[in-house]
Amino acid sequence: MTSKERVLSTLNFTNTQERIPRQLWSLPWAQEHCPEMMERLSRDFEWDFDGPDTVLKEQPVTKGDAYAVGEYVDEWGCIFTNIHRGVIGEVKQPIVEDDDWDDVGRVHIPEELLSFDIDQVNRSCEQKQGKFLFASCCPRPFEQLQFIRGTANLYMDLMDPPPKLLEFMKRMHDFYSRLMEKWAKTEVDSLNMMDDWGSQNDLLINPQLWDEYFGPMYRDYIDIAHQNGKKIFMHSDGNILRIIPKLIDLGLDAVNSQLFCMGLENLAPYKGKITFWGEIDRQHLLPRGTTADIDQAVESVYRTLWQDGGCIAQCEFGPGANPENVYRVYQAWEKIRNK
Amino acid sequence: MSILSEISENLQRGKAKIVKELVQQAIDEGIPAQDILEKGLLAGMDVVGDRFKKNEVFVPEVLVAARAMNMGTTLLKPLLAESGVEAAGKVCIGTVKGDLHDIGKNLVKMMMEGKGLEVVDLGTDVAPETYVKTAIEQNCQIICCSALLTTTMPVMGEVVKEAEKAGIRDKVKIMIGGAPVTEAFCQQIGADKYTTDAASAADAAVEFCRGMA
Lengths: 339, 213
Ligand code: B12
Fold this sequence. Notes:
heterodimer; A: 339 residues; alpha/beta; TIM Barrel; six-stranded parallel beta sheet; 14 helices; B: 213 residues; Methyltransferase, Methionine Synthase (B12-binding Domains), Chain A, domain 1; Rossmann fold; five-stranded parallel beta sheet; 9 helices; 5 strands; globular; binds cobalamin
C-alpha cells in the first residue's frame, strides 16, 4: 500500500490491516535546537504526507522572516513583532485602526498566492507520487482578521460588526474560495485550513458568532474540496469540543486539535465520524511526561478514537518538547500496528 | 428600574455609549460617585465575571463589558479622587519574559479593575526584575504573572526568587496563571495563589488586599 492509499483508507474508515499513517510537525525551533533528533526521526520512520513544490509567478509582499527576531510583514500587510527565533511573533500595531474599518484600504488581499501554474504543481505532484499530498494554501479567516485588526479589537467588533468589516469578510472569503477552487483543480489529495478556536477550557468566542460568521465560510471550503474529489483537513488549537460536532456536520475529513485539553473521553462519541489528525499533548506530556506516559497516551488515543481509521500519528516538535518523547510517540504508534 | 441597575444591565450588554450617558445622568442627579461605581459599574462587571467563569459568556462579551466600564470610570475618577475614595488595592500584572500571549492577562486585568483594584499593566515579555521593581516603586500589594507556554512557566519561579532577593517577599503576594499552569506548579515555585480563570483571580486579589490592609 502506498502512503496515499494508507491515508485515504484511514480517512474512509477502511484501514483494517495497515499501519496508522504518520506525520511530524516541527517548528523551526526544533531544527535549530535538536538537529540530531530531527535527523533520527526522518531516518527511522517513513512519513506519509507531503506537498508539491510550488512556484509563484508573482511574489507576495512579505518582508522579513516570520520565525526570526524582529519585524515581519505577512502577505496581507500585517506587521508582526517577534522576540524569539524559531516561533512566530505577535501583531502589536494593527493595520486597521478605525473602529468603523474606514481604513480597511490598507489591507492587501494577497492575490499573488493565486499566481501558481497548475501544470507546474501537477508535475511536482507526479514526482511525489505515492505520498498523500496537501495543497500549499491554508485559509485562516478568524486568525487573519485578528492579525489585521488586533485580537481584542476584532473580538469587540464581532459583537456588533460595522458594515465595512462585514464587507471585508466577504472579500476575504471570496479570495479564499478562489484560492481553494484553484488548488482543488490540481493533483493534490487534500485542501487544508486552520484557525485556533479554543482557550484551555472552552471556545474563545460565543458559538453563536461562530455559527453566524465562520461556520458558513468553512462549509464553502469543505464543499469546494468535496465537489472536486479532494479531502479537507483543519487545524484548530485549544478546547474546541463545542464545534467538533459542527465540523462533522459540515463534512470535515480530519481535525488537528488539543485532544488532551478536551479530554479523550469527551471525544469518544465522535469516533468513526471524523479523523483525529494527531496530537499528543504538548503542554504537559511532551515536555515532562515519562516514556511510559507517552506510551499510555498513544494507546488511549488509539483505544478511544480508532475505528478502522480515524487517527493519524502526529505530534508537534516545538519549544519545550523533550526530543525523546517526540520520538517515542512514533515508536508507540508503530508498535500498535506496524504493517 | 433604578438608574444604577440600568447602568449595570447596559454594562453587561457592552453598551458603552449608553453606560457613559447613564453615568453622567447619575452624577447630575447627585448620586455619590462611589455608589455609581459600586452599585452600577462594578455590580455589572461582577455578573459578567460570574457568567464567564461558568462558560456562559466568552472573551468578546467580557471585553465589551470592560470597555463600557472604562467609559463610566473615566467620568467618575475625578469625583472619586475629590471625595478621597481609594482603590481596593494595587496590583501589577504582565505576561512573563519570552511570552507574547496576552488575551488572558488582559482579562485578568479587566476583572481586577472590575473589582475596584488599581492595576499597573506591564504588558508582555516582562522580566522578573521589572515586576519586582514596579511592585516596590508603585507600592503594589500583588504581583500577577501570566504564562501560556510551558517554556516560559519557569520565569514565574524566578519572579518569586527575585522578590525574595529584593527583600519584599513578605510584603507582596504573587499570583500566577495561564493555560498550562497548575496548582501543583504554584506550590512548587512557592507562589501564593493560582486560579483557573480571571474572575476567580480578581476575587482572590481582593481577598489578599483586604487581608493586607
Ligand atoms: C490565541 C493563541 C495564540 C495567539 C496569541 C494572541 C495574543 N495576543 O495573545 C498567537 C497566534 C499569537 C499565538 C502564538 C504562539 N503560540 Co499560542 N495559543 C493561543 C491559544 C489558541 C489560546 C490562548 C488564549 O488566548 N486563550 C484565551 C485566554 C482568555 O485564556 P488564558 O490565556 O488561558 O487565560 C485565562 C486563565 O488561564 C487565567 N489566567 C491567565 N493569566 C493569568 C494570570 C494570573 C495571575 C491568574 C491568576 C490567572 C490567569 O485567566 C484567563 C481568563 O479566564 C492557546 C491554546 C490554549 N490551549 O490555551 C495556544 C497555545 C498557548 N500556543 C502555543 C504555541 C506553541 C504558540 C507558538 C509558539 C506557536 C508558533 N507557531 O510559533 C506562538 C508563541 C508566541 C510567543 N512568543 O509567545 C501552545 C503552547 C504549548 C506549550 N508548549 O506550552 C498552545 C497551548 C497551543 C497548543 N497547541 O498547544 N498563540
